[in-house]
Input
Amino acid sequence: MMIRKATSFFLVFSFLTFQITSAEMTAPRPAARGRVMTFLDCYEKVLAHYPALRKRYERLEQAKAGRNLAVAELFPRIRGVFEMQTSDDPVFVFGSLLRQESFTANNFELNALNTPRHRTNYRFGIEGDILLFDSFNTISKIRSARRLVQYSSLEIDWTEMEAAILTLESFLGILLARELYSVALEVKNASGKDLQQAKDLADKGMIQGADFYAAKVIAAGIDREVNRLGALLKTSCMLMNVLMGEEPDGEWEAAGRFPGSGQDKSELEAWLARAYQKRPDLAAVDKMLDARRIEKTRQKTSFLPKIYGFASLDENSHDWHTGGQSFAVGMKGTMDWFDPAYPGRVKDVDARHKELKAERDALRDEIVRDIVRELARYETVLLDVPVMRSASADAKQASDLTAKLYQEGRKSIADLLEMRRGYYETAAGYESLLLSLELEYAKLLFLSGQLTEDGIRQVNARLKG
Output
């Protein structure tokens, strides 16, 4: 993603200066982003690129085409026809003369009737036929096709929700990596100053060398964590770029922060009721089940009579200049007295219907299991967040107090860096819980079918603060 051309020279210069300074002080931090994007911005880009969603749209178009084909069977079919035939068959010659309005008294001679000369007939015409009645077979086909269109549309809604939860998980990962990097960098800088002071004291023989080298080992671990988090932040942004269909190394900045507070949770029964009512994939299975039921009825009644109307307008000519015209109008009915494929068709569609019913029951059970698990996780996170918030504040206070004790000579440099590392680990645990607080609730919305456009905007508003 290119940095906007409208960015002023001053900002670019400041950005480069900051990067050079940071490179001297710390491990390389991912570059400041040239464009700010919210969760909603990322989600819209993911929707535009998401291959699974494009696939669903193509299936919807196929379903609409199938519906149009079914409806087309109710309309008449009109064809233009042309036929040329030459024969000396007595019946053909006699009929052709009549159709061409060229029959004369001489054609009644026995020799002319028994052994006529060959004759050519050119036939031009328009034919049409229309379904009049087929025991509602075509109507059932149309009803089934409409259910399939609704099924495909609901599958699109579900895939959009899947894209939303996937985007949110990636976006929250970026926010978490950024927050952890900031905390780790703060700890690293403070530890670096402490370590430099300890080195000066060690050179003067005022502290034990063992404490100094133990502190260096702890500081090395903190440095590695900063490097790991810098790589994690970069990788998280690259993965989001892939989701959005952009270049992996495109530069942008995620706008948002963790709210830090939970949302009111409902009881399990309320979540399940919403899921049964609003889950698009469950509603899609119901539409497919209804389509299979209609198809089963259609196959069972496929032996009933079918009646068609037909009409034709013809002109027959011998020489392309003269000829006769005729028309025909009528009806034709058919009924299968014996169809060896009938039992197999009925059995096949009945088995498919029962199979789909079993899949629907399995999906309902899966919904219950998933919501139970996610609700338990969310309730646990709600309980853990205040505990870790307090622990993080305590760890910060302990780190500051240990620094004062170190200055007074009552704590070693190793004790101080160990306390700073403990502060980072506690803060990292707290930030991870804040991520879980948002993600687990969003998963509950997703599993209950509520991660619609309104739900997504609600999540975006919370992250924007």
Observations:
- The domain at 76-133+304-334 is CATH 2.20.200 (Outer membrane efflux proteins (OEP)).
